[in-house]
Design a protein that fits this description.
about 600 residues; mainly alpha; 3-stranded antiparallel sheet; 19 helices; 13 strands
Length: about 600
């Protein structure tokens, strides 16, 4: 048992002992101390929020994705580098804690509806635990009870995906039906609508995974999962009372959701809430603005090109987009772009004074420097000091789950489009294409992202999902379920540089910001300009930051490191140490002998 659970038991003992001073002292905790009262059940289920498999108070979960260039290439996508001995994640302690609660939450002195409420919370967390395991390893053993150290089930093989996922769905159905709370003003706990939101996420994942991963032989059941995803999301849309934040208008309302200290209640269903008085803070600024601490994660130009023009037309319809300068390419675009990266009139605060803040090349490799999660005051850059709350479930995702499920089923209507993608694009200031679903497939999306997709609605929902949910920890899962792992091979490209030794004003404030050179640094240097060496080699070593055409063109980063996706990588290998303990698990396909 985890330390928290021991603390809970001891707390419950103290609580019950204090009720009657003449009560005989207990030398060991009993089930009754925890499971015999609602306060005990609540204390126990509160321990689930600290479990290791849950997303933490972090904004860096998309560091491994197709649309971010980072300091180093993950070993996982480098051919011949990653092996089962490096694999992790085959841990089950948290599951035993959950199962122990589920098995023992049956004291008749607690009313059944109250017990079922807390059982719903426990089964929500068990579903979450198992979904993370299925996403990582595929088939896993379904364990529905706490196992003793000598239980033979500890050395059993894995169960089929269909059985495990049916069990996950059963847990979520129970959670949705029995969790009582429909609203938590703090947005920090699991409510009925959080359970619904997670169910819609999981049903969409499983439906699309089965549809596109034909090797599973589960295509016939994909539609049922997609229908469940749509109906579950619709339940929230019709009854949850949530809406998309529009306070302050299209220019600020999107980013406001990610920089607010108090979760934006209209849109955020659940958040990792910061609290300065309790010193519960996050490290968003430190991770995203440090040249040494974080991954210096920067968006690629290929992805930035997917942001639409304000009139709703694809930016890439303009043939000049390939050579457009940064200062121009960020204009007249979906206003979520300027709320996601440094551009235009973006400013930071230094000592209480606003200062222009163009992309800084000590922090970015591509020029597309994220600001979505960072606070503007530089005070927060120097450690884990951030006070903004991190949204875990947003109403925007619910809308996109609904739209995508309907698009995949071929039943998306114009009304559906207007109520989902149309609403999100309107918040971004887009004026065209809001009321009717698209009828033309965008050639840029098919060429660069989804070559097998011809349905315009599916393409556009995927575009919207990438933009709206960027940096929220969902991108890699999306690539897995769409069977688009090869996007991890994409070149890490940056903005267009027309010539060497030509300082550029990136935000048009009249101050030159950056220049690129090869060989010796230009003399005299222009004051305030950051000089970036794009020579093929520096000090006899290969330089990772280059220009695509040698002396001009798009920036490229670390493309000398070979990245190669293989279909075996849709699952991680079973860790070697765990496989040695239990050979009955078997290794995932393609990882044998590695």
């Amino acid at each position: 048992m985890k330390k928290q659970y021991i603390w809970i038991l001891l707390s419950c003992l103290c609580f019950t002992a204090c009720k009657k001073l003449d009560q005989e002292p207990q030398s060991t905790p009993t089930n009754k101390a925890v499971f015999g009262s609602e306060s005990g059940l609540k204390l126990y289920t509160n321990s689930f929020y600290a479990m290791e498999f849950l997303p933490k108070n972090s904004t860096s979960q998309d560091a491994v994705s197709d649309y971010l260039a980072v300091k180093s290439v993950s070993d996982f996508i480098r051919p011949g580098i990653f092996t089962p001995s490096q694999s992790t994640g085959w841990t089950w302690t948290d599951l035993r804690n959950i199962n122990y609660f589920i098995e023992n939450c049956k004291d008749p002195s607690v009313p059944v509806d109250i017990r079922n409420n807390y059982l719903g919370i426990a089964r929500y967390f068990r579903a979450y635990f198992y979904m993370e395991k299925v996403k990582r390893f595929g088939d896993v053993p379904w364990i529905g009870k706490p196992l003793n150290i000598n239980d033979p089930a500890l050395y059993a093989g894995r169960d089929k995906r269909a059985l495990v996922m049916d069990s996950v769905l059963a847990d979520l159905d129970f959670a949705c039906a029995n969790i009582k709370a429909t609203n938590d003003a703090t947005r920090s706990t699991v409510t009925k609508w959080v359970a619904y939101a997670y169910k819609s996420r999981i049903c969409l994942f499983e439906g699309t995974f089965r549809k596109y991963h034909t090797e599973l032989g589960l295509q016939s059941s994909a539609s049922a999962w997609l229908e469940n995803a749509a109906s579950t999301a619709k339940e929230i849309m019709d009854k949850g009372g949530y809406s998309i934040n529009t306070a302050g208008g299209p220019g600020i309302s999107y980013r406001q959701v990610f920089t607010s200290t108090v979760p934006v209640a209209s849109e955020v269903l659940q958040a990792a809430v910061s609290d300065l008085t309790l010193n519960v803070l996050n490290e968003a600024n430190w991770w995203w603005t440090s040249g040494t601490y974080g991954a210096k994660a920067s968006f690629t130009r290929t992805f930035i090109n997917t942001y639409l023009n304000l009139d709703g037309t694809p930016y890439t319809n303009n043939p000049a987009y390939t050579t457009m300068l940064f200062k121009d390419e960020v204009k007249n675009r979906d206003l979520r772009l300027k709320q996601t990266i440094r551009s235009g009139d973006y400013k930071r605060i230094s000592g209480g004074v606003q200062v222009p803040a163009p992309p800084v090349f000590s922090y970015t490799f591509t020029g597309y420097q994220p600001i979505k999660w960072t606070l503007d005051d530089m005070y927060y850059d120097a450690g884990a000091l951030n006070i903004n709350s991190i949204a875990l479930f947003r109403y925007a995702e619910v809308l996109l789950n609904y739209a995508e499920a309907k698009a995949e089923l071929g039943t998306l209507t114009n009304e559906d489009w207007a109520a989902t993608v149309g609403v999100l694009r309107a918040r971004g200031g887009i004026t065209g294409g809001l009321s009717a679903k698209p009828i033309i497939a965008d050639s840029y999306l098919t060429a660069n992202y989804f070559p097998g997709i011809t349905d315009p609605s599916i393409l556009e929902v995927r575009r919207e999902r990438g933009i709206e949910l960027s940096l929220e920890g969902l991108r890699y899962s999306d690539l897995l379920r769409w069977k688009r792992g090869p996007l991890m091979d994409q070149e890490w490209d940056g903005f267009y540089v027309p010539a060497l030794v030509t300082p550029m004003d990136l935000n048009e404030d009249g101050i030159l910001d950056v220049a690129f050179y090869q060989g010796a640094k230009p003399k005299p240097e222009v004051a305030g300009v950051t000089y970036v060496d794009v020579s093929a080699t520096i000090g006899g070593k290969i330089n990772s930051q280059l220009l695509k055409n040698g002396t001009f063109g798009e920036l490229t980063w670390m493309n000398e490191i070979v990245r190669k996706w293989d279909d075996k990588m849709y699952y991680y290998p079973i860790p070697q140490a765990d496989l040695q303990k239990n050979p009955a698990l078997g290794q995932n396909p393609g990882w044998q002998g590695n």
